[in-house]
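Just scan my protein:

——
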Amino acid sequence: MTGNLLILTVLAVFGLVLVYATYLSAREWSILYTLNRQGVETLAKVENLTKDTQGRGEKNYALYHFYVDGVPYENRQQISKQHYTQLKQAKELNIRYLPSSPSISRLAGKDFDNTYRNLVSFVAFAAAIIIPPTIAVWILSFIFSKLLLHARGLPEKKKA
């Protein structure tokens, strides 16, 4: 039973990753869709470009700020390594924000970058491809082991 518990735990963790990645992916696609339909394009000042090397790989970010009706807003967006290199000399970025909620903004126009959206979409897709077949194989192996024991006339192992 210990092996089954381990498998169930691993599947539960993968399931949680799937749910979270799907949520992040759907959220990011929704933001992009809404920004494309209702967003206002403007210029933002580049505040800072940073690299995060903690964890796996290297993540690059653009921190920018802009004003809407005199109110300052700031956002940080993950960008590709190529985009990071291109933006090193930039003073301004094209962005798109929601007039109803200016804190929601993304790089737009010639500065558009969908690195984060692609990442979370890939993780959600990969988890969706891996988890269901893994669950099916686990269930089938459990069923077949019970059938095999029954066909051989062997008693099932009892818990101590």
Observations:
- The helical segments are 2-38, 81-87, 115-152.
